[in-house]
Design brief:
single chain, alpha+beta, 8-stranded parallel beta barrel, 9 helices, about 15% helix
Length: about 675
């Protein structure tokens, strides 16, 4: 085999300047990538790539790799050549600034490109992988089943004969790692249990499912996480049966999402992304480290990402009522409520979808009609000009529903992108709900990403997408997050499946691992369809509208209703919504994590937004129970004294001190009550 030629562009671009902490540089055959919080050290050698260590610089703690296994395993054999370049990330209107190192390897007819990214302010290093050329003699993707192995009677019996692809790896050694794998579930029209966690101590080689693996050292300080930025496990492409492989102190990420036929000589094909981060071993610190990274993906917001949106589809008129007169009237009513974005769902456009009440259409062959994505000339004879102009006078924005052309694996993505850009240029529309997605192949995934990237590029980041997670094979909660937020779920009183505590539960469980501010969460008109909930203790009508709205505060609130169907008494909610919008940005700038009990309809529960080391917010719910007060653990150290200031709801101002377990005593006067507090930590 030819000797490796390691070339390095170690120019000044690879060095951080004032205010920048991230760096990427090489010394001999070693790559260093990191920032003030983390350093990942990688050996670049004839046996490909191998992490030497990962250091948590905040705590001066290093996890040293205990094996000689490669970080990347996709083909047998050693690389023929390797080159590396280091520099700063290209400026982006979306993601944070940082440093990047790109390593390119060649295995015969196959090229592999590994891109390592360290943002300036996150204790994590990102690893992107692309393939190009011809992928032959690939390592099998199946992880195997230990039930097929013989019993262990000797040391030799312990050696597993199953080999699988490895996307990334860390092997710090030790026998006492305490792990949690977190699996997510989308297609929420069919799922109402969206998070499942599995806790375990690694033993023999086994697979674990999920997009997230948290590992805490039970015998010493330190911990790390692997985040796999991919669709949910149940919808990933070419899924090998697990996302992580663990064996004592050895941890690997598997499942590229690529089949050999996906790899061609003419273009790079992207595997799923892996993020490796470090934390100090405590639950809250682990979740804060994860969230600090997640906030880097959409750190630069050139448009207002925060919104209180109204989308009329929730009252099940579908497209039957959408026209200019209806929208102009709804805008007046939405303004009374304090809504900041009015979104026209399916029906504003000339083309007809399969969900149309005025004549069934199709999502196939959309571009046979070049005017499909223009305003319906019958419903909107003046286009959207009058609707947009009125919204601006009312200090509101207009959003639109959009369904990319799914046929032929998004072959028309460029036309779709131009349609969105044209609407942005013509009307200033900056918010598009993306629906109807199906991502059955890697080519479809690549083209969909091309669509998002092209719109982002041409709009300078001014367009934000609401990515629908209700059905189909889509991006889930951990992919495409840089492009906007997630439309979480369809729930309807018409079908009797809107239960406020279940909406709260879904948000509460997701918020530990997914930024709450990146989720659109619904509240509905509680006066509709009361006959669907006869004698139901958790019927929507049993709650105040303020309470239903409060459930959505830590997320992006979605008024899933037609304002014209609300009774007059509903508009008193406008005071609460307007109070909320004063605090919305500060709430969402913090690290939002769940506190209290799992919402059940009978619990004390809530959220904490940690804005800095000295302040934040608490959103506390007393569900339908007889406990006037509760002891609730906050994500603060024991002995912390904090002053509570009620902002919205029925709480009272008081000064509290956390006990030895971090608990404080909180009270609310009645069942199904809430309070949003601001807290300040006193010296």
């Amino acid at each position: 085999m030819a000797l490796l030629a390691i070339t390095c562009n170690a120019s000044a671009a690879g060095q951080p300047t004032a205010g920048q902490t991230a760096f990427a540089r090489t010394h001999g055959d070693t790559l260093f990538i990191g920032n003030a919080q983390i350093v990942r050290t990688i050996l670049l050698h004839h046996d490909s790539l191998r992490t030497i260590s990962v250091t948590d610089r905040r705590r001066h703690l290093t996890l040293a790799n205990q094996t000689t296994g490669n970080d990347l395993v996709i083909v047998k054999g050693k690389a023929d050549s390797l080159s590396v370049s280091c520099g700063r990330l290209p400026l982006s209107p979306i993601h944070a600034d940082g440093a990047v190192a790109t390593v390119t390897l060649r295995y015969g007819s196959l090229e592999v490109k590994r891109q390592y990214i360290a943002y300036d302010n996150a204790p994590a290093v990102v690893c992107n992988t692309w393939l190009r050329g011809k992928l032959k003699a690939a390592i099998p993707q199946q992880t195997g089943n230990n039930a097929d192995n013989k019993n262990i009677e000797s040391t030799a019996d312990m050696e597993s004969q199953v080999h699988t692809t490895i996307l990334d790896r860390l092997s710090p050694g030790g026998n006492h790692w305490q792990c949690r794998a977190v699996e997510f579930f989308d297609y929420t029209d069919w799922n109402n249990n969206l998070v499942q966690t599995t806790s375990f101590i690694p033993y023999r080689r086994n697979g674990a499912r999920g997009n997230l693996l948290l590992a805490k050292n039970g015998a010493a300080a330190g911990g790390f996480f692997f985040l796999k930025e991919a669709p949910c496990s149940s919808t990933q492409l070419h899924y090998p049966g697990a996302d992580f492989i663990t064996e004592f102190g050895n941890f690997a990420v598997t499942g590229f999402g690529i089949a050999p036929d996906d790899v061609t000589p003419d273009q790079w094909v992207r595997a799923y992304t892996v993020v490796l981060g470090v934390f100090d071993g405590y639950e809250t610190e682990a979740l804060k480290a994860l969230r600090l990274y997640q906030k880097q993906l959409r750190a630069k917001k050139t448009v207002t990402d925060d919104m209180v949106m109204m989308n009329t589809w929730g009252d099940r008129s579908q497209d039957a009522r959408i026209n200019e007169a209806f929208c102009l009237d709804e805008l007046d009513r939405a303004h009374r409520l304090g809504i900041t974005v009015f979104q026209l769902d399916d029906g504003w456009q000339k083309g007809k979808s399969p969900n149309s009440k005025s004549g069934k259409g199709s999502f196939k062959d959309i571009w046979k009609d070049s005017l499909y994505w223009t305003p319906d000339p019958v419903k909107f004879p003046q286009g959207l000009d009058r609707v947009v102009a009125k919204a601006r006078r009312l200090n509101m924005r207009i959003g639109l529903w959009f369904n990319p052309s799914i046929q032929n694996e998004f072959a028309d993505w460029q036309k779709d992108a131009e349609a969105v850009i044209s609407l942005w240029r013509r009307y200033g529309i900056t918010i598009f709900k993306i629906d109807g997605l199906q991502i059955p192949t890697k080519l479809a995934e690549q083209r969909l990403r091309n669509f998002f990237d092209e719109v982002t590029r041409q709009s300078g980041g001014n367009v934000i997408f609401n990515l629908d997670a209700t059905a189909g094979r889509r991006g889930g909660y951990n992919m495409f997050n840089e492009y906007g937020n997630i439309f979480l779920e369809n729930r309807y009183t018409d079908w009797g499946n809107y239960y406020p505590y279940q909406t709260l539960r879904n948000l509460w469980q997701l918020s530990a691992y997914v930024p709450a501010e990146r989720l659109q969460v619904e509240f509905l008109n509680k006066w509709r369809n009361t006959s669907k909930y006869v004698d139901d203790p958790f019927a929507p009508a049993r709650y105040s509208m303020d309470y239903l709205f409060a459930i959505t505060m830590m997320a992006q609130p979605l008024a899933w209703m037609e304002a014209s169907n609300l009774p007059n008494e509903a508009y008193s909610m406008g005071k609460t919504i307007k109070q909320y919008t004063r605090w919305q940005l500060q709430l969402h700038q913090g690290i939002i994590l769940p506190i209290g009990e799992v919402p059940s309809g009978r619990s004390w529960t809530g959220f904490q937004s940690i804005t800095d080391d000295h302040s934040g917010f608490l959103l506390v719910f007393r569900e339908d129970n007889d406990r006037v007060s509760t002891r609730m653990a906050l994500r603060l150290a024991k002995g912390t004294t904090l002053r509570l200031r009620p902002l919205i709801g029925d709480g009272k101002a008081e000064t509290l001190t956390t006990d030895d377990e971090g608990h404080v005593s909180l009270s609310l006067p009645r069942p199904n009550d809430f309070c949003l507090y601001q807290y300040k930590i006193t010296e």
